[in-house]
């Protein structure tokens, strides 16, 4: 009788596991992962250790260092180097506080803002990239290597879905980080010349997914659509990372992964 009970118990848990796997969404993304933000438990993975271009998800690390190493009230003079980066609203000679610059970087994915932060914190982009790599290793993102602060394509600038999830998980432990990435829109203030720049978050899930709390979009032609997305329901926070997907499907597939995770039993 005891043997029969053990066999039935084993069969039950096997069928439960198979059922959970069968319900996992079919993704077109080249790589993806879903983790529990508190424990780090992996709930789903697809090519999670495959080297990919992270695009602007890189800015999660730039944001982390800006918060840990910088003073948000410090006024920064925008360099012409930062202003000449592709996809930026900055102009050389403008003055803006580091805190506002960080919001501009994370909400509208401003590449020049990331470069300006790198120059302000690290002195130059190369040194800041070394700081990023040191932090990545400390977090456990050992399959990652950064050469810039914004995620512009470079064959030596790469990461994995697993590492991006670890970086997002680390960032979300910081109250200021959580506040920034969960902000839907903000008027970013410039000190000189005095003006406000309206910034709306590029993370569509903040507007469409119940419980969404961030984290960061990314896109380049080489990386295709990327997204690190987090959501909280019933006190449980999950993080999904999508890499090398379609422009729109990164959002739908991240939402499907999050749904799958919330439907699974703890």
Task: Record the SSE blueprint.
Blueprint: H1 2-22, E1 31-36, E2 42-46, H2 59-69, E3 75-77, H3 80-83, E4 95-97, H4 98-108, H5 111-122, H6 125-139, H7 161-171, H8 175-181, E5 185-192, E6 195-200, H9 205-208, E7 212-220, E8 224-233, E9 236-245, H10 249-263
Antiparallel strand pairs: 1-2, 1-9, 3-4, 4-5, 5-6, 7-8, 8-9
Helix pairs in contact: 2-4, 2-5, 4-5, 5-6
Characterization of this structure:
This protein is of the alpha+beta class and 266 residues long. The protein has a single domain, classed as Beta-lactamase (3-Layer(aba) Sandwich). The protein is 42% helix and 23% strand. The protein contains ten helices and nine strands. Strands 2-1-9-8-7 form a five-stranded antiparallel sheet, with helices on both faces. A four-stranded antiparallel sheet has the order 3-4-5-6. The two termini are 30 Å apart. The N terminus is likely disordered.
**CA radius of gyration:** 20 Å
Number of helical stretches of at least 4 residues: 10
Counted up, domains total 1
| Biggest sheet architecture | 5 strands, antiparallel
The H-and-E topology, N to C, reads as HEEHEHEHHHHHEEHEEEH
| Widest β-sheet, arrangement of strands | 2-1-9-8-7
- Which of globular, elongated, flat, extended, rod-shaped describes the shape? globular
Give a concise summary.
This protein has helices at 2-22, 59-69, 80-83, 98-108, 111-122, 125-139, 161-171, 175-181, 205-208, 249-263, and strands at residues 31-36, 42-46, 75-77, 95-97, 185-192, 195-200, 212-220, 224-233, 236-245. It is an alpha+beta fold.
């Amino acid at each position: 009788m005891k043997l029969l009970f053990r066999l039935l118990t084993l069969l039950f848990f096997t069928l439960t596991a198979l059922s959970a796997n069968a319900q996992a969404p079919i993704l077109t993304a080249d790589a993806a992962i879903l983790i529990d933000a508190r424990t780090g438990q992996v709930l789903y993975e697809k090519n999670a250790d495959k080297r990919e271009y992270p695009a602007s998800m890189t800015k999660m690390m730039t944001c982390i260092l800006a918060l840990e190493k910088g003073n948000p009230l410090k006024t920064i003079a925008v360099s012409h180097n930062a202003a000449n980066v592709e996809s930026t609203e900055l102009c050389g000679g403008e003055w803006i506080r580091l805190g506002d610059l960080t919001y501009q970087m994370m909400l509208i994915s401003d590449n020049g803002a990331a470069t300006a932060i790198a120059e302000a914190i690290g002195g130059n982009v190369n040194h800041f990239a070394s700081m990023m790599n040191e932090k990545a290793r400390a977090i456990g993102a050992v399959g990652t290597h950064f050469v810039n602060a914004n995620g512009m394509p470079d064959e030596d600038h790469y990461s994995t879905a697993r590492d991006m999830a670890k970086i997002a998980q680390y960032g979300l432990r910081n109250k200021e980080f959580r506040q920034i990435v969960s902000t839907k829109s903000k008027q970013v203030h410039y000190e000189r010349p005095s003006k406000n720049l309206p910034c709306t978050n590029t993370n569509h899930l903040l507007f469409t997914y119940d419980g969404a709390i961030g984290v960061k979009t990314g896109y380049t032609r080489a990386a295709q659509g990327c997204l690190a997305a987090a959501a909280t329901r019933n006190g449980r926070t999950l993080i999904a990372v999508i890499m090398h997907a379609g422009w729109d499907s990164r959002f739908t597939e991240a939402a499907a992964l999050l749904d799958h995770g919330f439907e699974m039993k703890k």
